[in-house]
Amino acid sequence: MAKYHRETDLQLLTQDELDEILDMALNLSDELEFIDRPWRQIAYDSTQKDIERVTGDTRVAREFYRRRLIMARELGFHQTGVKEMVIDQYRLPPRIHKPLATKVSEMFDISMNEIDPIIQIQNEGHILYPHIGHARNSSIFCLLQSNNERTIWYEETKPFKTYSMYRIPDYSKLKEAEETRLTVGKWTTFMHNQWHAVKRDGDPKKWRVNLNIDFASLPYDELLEKIDKWQKST
Ligand SMILES: [Fe+2]
Hints:
By secondary structure, the protein is α+β, with helices and mostly antiparallel strands. The chain has a single domain, classed as Jelly Rolls. 29% of the residues lie in helices and 26% in strands. It has helices at 15-26, 48-55, 58-75, 94-108, 220-233; strands at residues 5-7, 33-35, 87-91, 115-122, 127-131, 138-145, 150-156, 174-180, 188-191, 196-199, 208-215. Strands 1-9-6-11-4-3-2 form a seven-stranded antiparallel beta sheet. It has a four-stranded antiparallel beta sheet with strand order 5-10-7-8, with no helix packed on it. Bound molecules: fe (ii) ion. Residues 131, 192, 196 line the site of fe (ii) ion.
């Protein structure tokens, strides 16, 4: 059984509501609020100088750069025709955000300040390099539109230090552990606090858009328990 994701039969929004959200994403509606993330200051193509400027620490910058080179070698990079996917994240307008967060809070008995429903849009590139969640530990993920990308989770073969500033792994100490192609419209639990990557073959035909109900610190196992409990009670 899969350890890091699980398809559910949850219907947290109607099809009309999901369609409306996809439409807002595809049109980059003014109602969406762009979420800036500080770690976006470092991109895969940043030079060691750029990284040093952001981190203010030469040793750390050197380590990030070393990890970068390992991933470039193992997974490809722009010079070998592999382009990094860029994810833009948006907060839903309060008229959708609030009722959805309230519903999830009541259904699964999760505190409101844990819950953040967001939209993610990826419109170019081939790979989202392995990373772990920053502002979330677990989530319930609903893909709205995709190019049938693969999501891959990894396990560490040897422990290595993780930096909060930039969640880049030492890829030489990771092995692939689980892979899936998420299903459009299926609410799927998603373990964020485990190294994972997204890959697509070739250039995207469409934007990849997903709705994510993020839980800031809720451990993935507890999320599964809460969903099971709710399903038993209905
Ligand atoms: Fe992720």
